[in-house]
């Protein structure tokens, strides 16, 4: 019996569809397997490049992802390749597992600040907090609360929610010129109680893209390559003689808003019985260009005067940075505003000299700028 022509055509079409689908399914399956294998290899060998190490916070706007490791990098490849680790409290710490000292430490030293204290540009061992931690005598515990884009308003909330209950004996706070702008930004989105006291700064909603990038190493690697290619394209016409002006340095006055939050933070810390020390990031422009070291106050100078007006110990970093730069020591990265390992070493040396009982195992003195 002859098969009707329309049935023959239908069978032929179905067969063609099956033949056409098969390569597509094979391709998708192969790509899926390839992605999985790539992810497994990256995880196995620890190639976890970082750019999504923050998550939104309902109180502190943004915080570090806790118990998180990644490899730091810069688009220009000026620095990078070292492992960054945030512990289970979201604090920058040594990637190497260490055994905590048993018993209660004699001194607990908390470091507050923004990205200069966080120091993602260098390894933990090369950062000034890491160096001080390594040099500290038995009985001294250091904790790095540095977080990018924080300012006095968020330091105040950080103290109330993260630090106060740890009962630090000493607090070292490093300020930077963009703190004033950061305070203004955060104050606009903050929530306040009936007395006008800030209670939280809600962060943005976490996007699905950020969540995926935090979980998958392959996406982090792809984004790193994208950023480095983009940077290379944008700077393709530069030569070694091209002046580098890859930073914008702010030199604001300490306005009423920041003054208010700083005074509240000082009151909170003093009420806890902890000793507070202020310091400020030296001007990169004045450090690199001695002709700019005029009588016009830098932001660090303004912080020093504010500290003096409020009887707060202040550690001057600028003089040591100027002297190092005059000796041709590179204390700032060329294309980045942050300290090099040599810059961090200078901060370490200055703080050790200011407070040897906390940061020197060889010290025979009890003197300390912060008692």
- Level-2 CATH architecture of the largest domain: 3-Layer(aba) Sandwich
> Which stretches are low in confidence, meaning pLDDT under 50 for 5 or more residues running?
240-246
CATH topology of the largest domain: Rossmann fold
The fraction of residues assigned to DSSP E strands is 5-15%
The helix/strand order is HEEEEEEHHEHEHEEHHHEHHHHH
What is the helix tally? Answer: 13
CATH class of the largest domain: Alpha Beta
Give the strand line-up of the largest sheet.
7-6-8-11
Major sheet description: 4 strands, parallel
Distance between the termini: 106 Å
The level of helicity is 40-55%
- Helical/strand content category: alpha/beta
- Report the C-alpha radius of gyration, rounded: 26 Å
Mean pLDDT: 83
Number of domains: 2
* Name given to the CATH homologous superfamily of the largest domain: SGNH hydrolase
Overall geometry = globular
Number of strands: 11
A few lines on this structure:
This protein has 371 residues and is α/β, with parallel strands linked by helices.
Give structural notes:
There is one protein chain. The chain has helices at 5-44, 115-118, 128-135, 152-163, 179-189, 208-215, 217-234, 256-272, 284-288, 299-309, 318-326, 341-354, 356-359; strands at residues 54-57, 61-64, 68-73, 80-86, 92-93, 107-112, 140-144, 170-175, 191-192, 198-200, 275-280. It has 2 domains: 10-45; 95-215 and 228-359, Rossmann fold (3-Layer(aba) Sandwich). The radius of gyration is 26 Å and the shape is globular. The longest helix has 40 residues, at 5-44. The protein is an alpha/beta fold and 371 residues long.
């Amino acid at each position: 019996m002859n098969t009707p022509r329309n049935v023959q055509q239908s069978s032929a079409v179905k067969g063609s569809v099956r033949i056409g689908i098969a390569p597509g399914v094979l391709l998708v399956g192969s790509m899926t397997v390839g992605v999985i294998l790539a992810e497994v290899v990256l995880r196995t060998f620890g190639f976890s490049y970082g750019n999504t190490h923050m998550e939104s916070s309902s109180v502190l706007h943004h915080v570090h992802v806790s118990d998180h490791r990644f490899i730091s990098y810069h688009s220009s490849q000026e620095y990078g390749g070292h492992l960054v680790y945030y512990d289970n409290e979201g604090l920058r710490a040594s990637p190497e597992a260490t055994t905590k000292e048993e018993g209660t430490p004699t001194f607990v030293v908390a470091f507050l600040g923004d990205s200069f204290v966080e120091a993602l540009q260098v390894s933990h061992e090369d950062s000034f907090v890491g160096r001080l931690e390594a040099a500290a005598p038995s009985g001294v515990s250091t904790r790095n609360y540095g977080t990018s884009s924080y300012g006095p308003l968020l330091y105040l909330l950080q103290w109330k929610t993260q630090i106060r209950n740890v009962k630090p004996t000493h607090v070292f706070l490093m300020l930077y010129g963009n703190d004033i702008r950061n305070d203004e930004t955060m104050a606009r989105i903050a929530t306040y109680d009936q007395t006008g006291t800030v209670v939280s700064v809600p962060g943005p909603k976490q996007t699905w893209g950020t969540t995926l990038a935090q979980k998958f190493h392959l996406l982090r690697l792809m984004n790193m390559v994208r950023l480095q290619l983009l940077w290379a394209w944008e700077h393709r016409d530069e030569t070694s003689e091209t002046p580098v002006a890859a930073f914008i340095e702010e030199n604001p006055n300490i306005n009423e808003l920041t003054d208010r939050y700083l005074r509240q933070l000082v009151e909170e810390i003093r009420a806890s019985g902890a000793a507070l020390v202020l310091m400020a990031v030296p001007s990169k422009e004045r450090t690199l260009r001695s002709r700019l070291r005029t009588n016009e106050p830098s932001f660090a100078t303004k912080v020093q005067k504010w500290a003096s007006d409020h009887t707060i110990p202040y550690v001057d970093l600028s003089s040591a940075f100027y002297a190092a730069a005059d000796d041709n020591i590179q204390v700032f990265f060329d294309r980045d505003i942050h300290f090099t390992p040599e810059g961090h070493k200078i901060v370490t040396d200055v703080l050790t000299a200011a407070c040897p009982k906390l940061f020197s195992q060889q010290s025979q003195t009890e003197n300390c700028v912060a008692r």
